[in-house]
Amino acid sequence: xxxxxxxxxxxxxxxxxxxxxxxxxxxxxxxxxxxxxxxxxxxxxxxxxxxxxxxxxxxxxxxxxxxxxxxxxxxxxxxxxxxxxxxxxxxxxxxxxxxxxxxxxxxxxxxxxxxxxxxxxxxxxxxxxxxxxxxxxxxxxxxxxxxxxxxxxxxxxxxxxxxxxxxxxxxxxxxxxxxxxxxxxxxxxxxxxxxxxxxxxxxxxxxxxxxxxxxxxxxxxxxxxxxxxxxxxxxxxxxxxxxxxxxxxxxxxxxxxxxxxxxxxxxxxxx
Length: 271
Ligand SMILES: C[S@@+](CC[C@H](N)C(=O)[O-])C[C@H]1O[C@@H](n2cnc3c(N)ncnc32)[C@H](O)[C@@H]1O
Known about the structure:
By secondary structure, the protein is α/β, with parallel strands linked by helices. The protein folds into 2 domains: about 1-65, no CATH class; about 90-270, Rossmann fold (3-Layer(aba) Sandwich), CATH 3.40.50. Helix content is about 40%, strand content about 20%. It is built from 11 helices and 7 strands. The chain has helices spanning about 1-15, 25-35, 40-50, 60-65, 75-85, 90, 95-105, 140-150, 190-200, 220-230, 240-250; strands at about 115, 135-140, 155-160, 175-180, 200-210, 250-260, 265-270. The chain has a 7-stranded mixed beta sheet with strand order 3-2-1-4-5-7-6, with helices on both faces. Strand 4 (about 175-180), helix 9 and strand 5 form a beta-alpha-beta unit. Helix 2 runs antiparallel to helix 3 (about 40-50), helix 5 (about 75-85) packs across helix 8 (about 140-150) and helix 9 (about 190-200) packs across helix 11. The longest helix has 14 residues, at about 220-230. The radius of gyration is 20 Å and the shape is globular. The structure holds S-adenosylmethionine (SAM).
């Protein structure tokens, strides 16, 4: 009993009261380790930083669990997206039907050597114009694995690489076009990522984005804020100011088009 009370006290300090806590597999693991007296450092890290539940229940503790921008943890981000890759195609099945034509229209504007940032499982590769010269990156090797098969079925030259958008391993001024699709809802520090895109883009290069962002319509904005508490545990943020972030990184806006309300947007910018 004393041990249990001690454990509760530790949870209180490690997991501040910022929302509902549900019993999860991780919690069982921690309890088991605690009762056997073996160290549980690793499990404790998983609890506080990576609480997506293996039983399908999620912790609602955004401030307590999301790493702040100052303490970016690339491996935490990679593991999150590796896990998401398992169900990604299932979860996004309707997207071709809803947004395929708009993506094709945007992709038709790419020119020259193009960096596709955050290729995911490669669902959008089929919209690339024939003859494209593409380097496609993603932080998740599991996503890349799935994208390989789809890339093999596409016309054009596509090179897939695991890489962090916040730390691109390319020299300055290397690409003519930057292409992003639902990328800057997911890169943990979007301004840092966009600054990297700016760096590797040629001076006369273009940035083409297909992104969902926070609405400016009050009730939708609040709903997207609320949903983000949940979705960021296993996927994207739904309330990013991607146009603002792009400007903060140094780009100049060329064109902004609403595809669905003011939430899904085509954004075109230049260096
Ligand atoms: C919402 S998914 C979009 C995937 C794909 N563009 C699509 O539309 O199907 C977000 C993607 O961003 C990737 N990602 C997240 N953080 C990243 C980072 N720092 N660098 C590169 N890719 C990242 C994830 O692995 C995931 O594949």
